[in-house]
Structure formats: C-alpha cells, structure tokens
C-alpha cells in the first residue's frame, strides 16, 4: 500500500494505482470564468447517468488520501468525504497563510469557504493537491490560473444558496422601508419612538437589480409577488422572469429605482461600480443593498450620500476587508471608515451571512463534496471552474480489466497526435478531450490492461513535455 505522500509524488509506479502532479514552467494567462447563465438549472445538468452496475473507480488506497476542510464546512459534505474512506481533517476557522502552507503540503483535497486565500504562494507548496472545493458561490479566493496550470481542479456551488440570499434581501428591503433597525435599537435602549414619517410600504415601489443571475432572478420573482415593479441591468441580454424589464444602462436603472440591490461578481469592472457618480444618479431618498462583494460599493461615498440625505437607507452584508474569524474585529483598524458607517441611521450591517442558512449550507456541502468525489474517483470535471468539462459514461462491473487514463496537458499543437500514438497500441473503448485556453483535458477508457500495461502507459505519457498531470484509474 502506498502512503499518501507517495501518491502525490508518484514514487510507486509498479502497480495499477498511479498518480502524478509534476510542475510546469508555463502558466495560462487568460482568466477562467464559469459559463454565463442567467438563472435556473443544475450545475450538473446533462451529466451522464451512472449505469446500475457502474464500476467504482479508485485511483488509490482511499484511506491514504488526506482531505483538509476549513471554515466549518457543513456536516453533509464531511459525511460524504469520510464515507469514501478518506482521511478528513476538519477545522472551524480559516488559517493564516504560513500555517496554511504547512497544513496543505501533504493534502490531496482541500475544502474552503470565502475566507481562505489559496494564492500562488500557497498552492506552490501543495505538492500533492489535486482538487479544491469552494463550499460557497465565489472562487475569487483561489488563484484559478495557477491551479489550472498545475492540474488542480476547482469546484464551487454557484446555485445552492441563491434562495437564502434572495430572502435576506427581501427582508432588508422591508426593514429599510420601515426603519425597523432603528426602532429596534431604540426599544432595546428603552426609548419608545412611534413614528410613520418616511416609513413606506414596498408595494408599488421599483426594485432595481444589478446582475440578473441566479440570485437576481429569484429576487425578481419574490419582489414581484410582493407588489414591486422590477427592472434589472446586466452585461448580458437575458430573459426576464414575470414582468421584470431589462434596462440598457446602469444609469437608467439607478434613476428609476426606489431600491437598488447589487448581485455581481468581483471583477475589475465591478470594483467601486457604485461610487460618487452613481449615488448622484440615484433617486432622492432611495435605498442601496449590497449582498454581492465588498469591493462593489465605495463605502466612503455611501457614507457621504447617507449624510447628505440622498440615500435614505442601506444594507450591507459584505465589505472590502472582513475579519478572518468571529469576534470584536469589525473596527477602524480593519476599515478606516468603520466608526462612521456604524454611526449612521437606518443602516443594516450583517457579517456576510447572505448564504448562511441551514438549508443552503447543507445543499452546498452535498453539491461540492459530490463533485470532489466524482473528480478524485472518476476524473469527471463537470462543474469545474478552471478546467475543461469532460466526462465519460461509467465503466461497469462487466469490464474488470479496464482502466481510465486522464491526461491534463498544455494546449499546444501536436499533443493529441503524440498521446494517441501511445494509446493506439491498446484498445481504446471511448475517449473525449476538450480544451480551455492554455489547458486541455483528455479522458480515455482502455480495455485488456494489466500492471505492466499501466506502468508502460504511465511512463510514456509522463515522458511527454506537454503534460501537466497524468492519472490512471481502474
């Protein structure tokens, strides 16, 4: 039986269980993004359905595989991974970079949420790492280009907490319109302040949604059900749900909306997309909600707009700098404007809990953990955000002497010809390949194999200068 360290560094090449992760001298330069989608659908829509007698591929002795889960990953995900026989280490918090580097050196699988930063410096030390699971929506905390260049797949859960975020935003719209936060704090302080001035119903008001993706679309439906008119702005032309209408520019949305809510990813184009100019374009006495990314709203400009009376209320769930753990850390040392923001009236501040419901975290745990198992055990990359999406139908128990070859390589001319010259000496039952910018992914099932066949295939594929990672599963 090989050790976990041996698996990652391919020291044992005498048996069927072969696993490699060599480094490359070149890296992709283009950004990797998930395919655009407006709403609905499953992450694994179109996935091949396993046969009833599907053969469970195992590329290793599962008890030697090390999994590190950080940031209190939900129990559902932990159960799935431990159920595979992997060694699972679980921590409730994130780790400082130096501690993370020490922990990640012998890890094959790592699961994180939004606080852990997997930079190139960290990933460089992860010599055995094959896959990253982001148990959240975003993947901006991971260096996707570096991961792809070194054959490390990255999976996330882009849909599972959409409803939780949408419901939070609806509750904040009502709370801001009725100044519930201020009234509650006053009552806790012993002050009775029964007022109706500048307190509104949301029925008949206009909600402007910036970013009509999975969350924005669900929010649209909920808002309409409560009698609101909905408009949205998105860089893509998208089909509206219900009677919502897409507007051509952000300026148009800001000028027409009583409530503005942001649901966009963190990109250079979205950094401070709501700043002084945009606040000037908004309606007098309108409201702003941001449950997307902390870099989207210029907080200093928001504070000025609130003090001037231009903005009547705001709800923030995300911030440019957020504490790594729970405690008295949301202060001026973290963000210089902290005291000014906390001193404003009718401002709801929540600690990045948009997707923090039992239902959402449970669903995320299942979705990401299942994706990790499929990738580790079968090589399936459906749902990966940084590698081509490739899958083959399952091998069956009637195919005992079959093996699955996975070859991740640089996307340069001539590679497939060389690979197929090697595979051509064997009976290839099925094969699929796809590329994504500078990285390509090939999967092939071959029959009538034995130990010597596997060893020969592995060594010949490893000798190719274009390889990123070679794996053979059986």
Class based on secondary structure composition and strand pairing:
alpha/beta
Number of strands: 17
Report the end-to-end length measured between terminal Cα atoms.
Answer: 16 Å
Net shape: elongated
Nearest-integer average pLDDT: 87
Helix content: 25-40%
* Biggest sheet statistics: 7 strands, parallel
Radius of gyration, in angstroms, nearest whole number: 25 Å
The CATH topology name of the largest domain reads Rossmann fold
| Range of strand content | 15-25%
Low-confidence stretches: 1-52
* CATH class membership of the largest domain: Alpha Beta
Question: What do these coordinates show?
Answer:
The structure is a single chain. With 474 residues, this protein is an alpha/beta fold. It has 3 domains: 94 residues, Rossmann fold (3-Layer(aba) Sandwich); 186 residues, NAD(P)-binding Rossmann-like Domain (Rossmann fold); 86 residues, Alpha-Beta Plaits, CATH 3.30.70.260. It is 29% helix and 18% strand. It has 15 helices and 17 strands. The strands form 3 sheets. A 7-stranded parallel β-sheet has the order 9-8-7-10-11-12-13, with helices on both faces. A 5-stranded antiparallel β-sheet has the order 1-17-14-16-15, with helices on one face. A 5-stranded parallel β-sheet has the order 3-2-4-5-6. Helix 2 runs parallel beside helix 13 and helix 6 crosses helix 8. Keywords: Amino-acid biosynthesis, NAD, Oxidoreductase, Phosphoprotein, Serine biosynthesis. Catalyzes the reversible oxidation of 3-phospho-D-glycerate to 3-phosphonooxypyruvate, the first step of the phosphorylated L-serine biosynthesis pathway. Also catalyzes the reversible oxidation of 2-hydroxyglutarate to 2-oxoglutarate. Pathway: Amino-acid biosynthesis; L-serine biosynthesis; L-serine from 3-phospho-D-glycerate: step 1/3. This is 2-oxoglutarate reductase.
